[in-house]
């Protein structure tokens, strides 16, 4: 949640053009393992005096697939996303009334993250892998088994390509199968009545 709050504040400052009022000498590095509870409360209470760079630098640890699978069934995941897919509540910031036709190419370039990252880039515990079935199933249409488009989910182009690769691997390994449900019809309703 600390990362999301920081990204939200950076986006607000960027939209309000307040970067010139901040001390650019410091940058916020978001590593949840290093932050203590006192420093979290202090960072939240000192919003106006906290120093930010014009670009947010993030040091991300590599999360294993097993940790990601455990995260998908944890209380923290349920508290953050509820019963919705991870992309359901995401809204991308854009200029003008009409959203762009394509999503951005990538949200993280090196260690620099954009102001409003896609649903998969903003949460480091969401790892795309053919073994992480609960995450992959959120991007599959329940009616026909197709992959849901990036225009609906809002994920960046890099993660969308990774998603397609991992879905293909999951179907090859057999971790995800899709069968059209068989519907039982009552033909007596359609027979002509005499």
TrEMBL record:
Belongs to the bacterial ribosomal protein bS18 family. Mitochondrion-specific ribosomal protein mS40 subfamily. It comes from Dinoponera quadriceps. GO terms for biological process: mitochondrial translation. InterPro entries: MRPS18B, Ribosomal_bS18, Ribosomal_bS18_sf. This is Small ribosomal subunit protein mS40. It is found in: Mitochondrion. Its main location: mitochondrion. PANTHER family: MITOCHONDRIAL RIBOSOMAL PROTEIN S18B, SMALL RIBOSOMAL SUBUNIT PROTEIN MS40. One of its GO terms (cellular component) is ribonucleoprotein complex. The lineage of its organism: Eukaryota, Metazoa, Ecdysozoa, Arthropoda, Hexapoda. One of its GO terms (molecular function) is structural constituent of ribosome.
């Amino acid at each position: 949640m600390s990362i999301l709050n920081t990204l939200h504040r950076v986006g607000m400052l960027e939209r309000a053009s307040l970067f010139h009022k901040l001390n650019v000498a410091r940058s916020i590095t978001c590593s949840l393992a290093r932050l203590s509870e006192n420093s979290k409360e202090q960072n939240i209470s000192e919003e106006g005096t906290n120093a930010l760079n014009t670009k947010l630098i993030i040091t991300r640890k590599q999360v294993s697939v097993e940790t990601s699978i455990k995260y998908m069934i944890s209380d923290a995941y349920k508290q953050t996303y509820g019963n919705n897919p991870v992309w359901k509540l995401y809204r991308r910031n854009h200029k003008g009334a009409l959203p762009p036709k394509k999503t951005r190419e990538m949200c993280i370039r090196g260690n620099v993250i954009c102001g409003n990252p896609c649903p998969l880039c903003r949460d480091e515990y969401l790892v795309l892998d053919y073994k992480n079935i609960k995450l992959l199933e959120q991007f599959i249409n329940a009616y026909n088994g197709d992959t849901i488009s990036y225009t609906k989910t809002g994920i960046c182009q890099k993660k969308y390509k990774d998603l397609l690769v991992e879905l293909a691997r999951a179907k090859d390994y057999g971790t995800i199968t899709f069968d059209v449900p068989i519907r039982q019809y009552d033909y007596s309703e359609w027979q002509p009545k005499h």
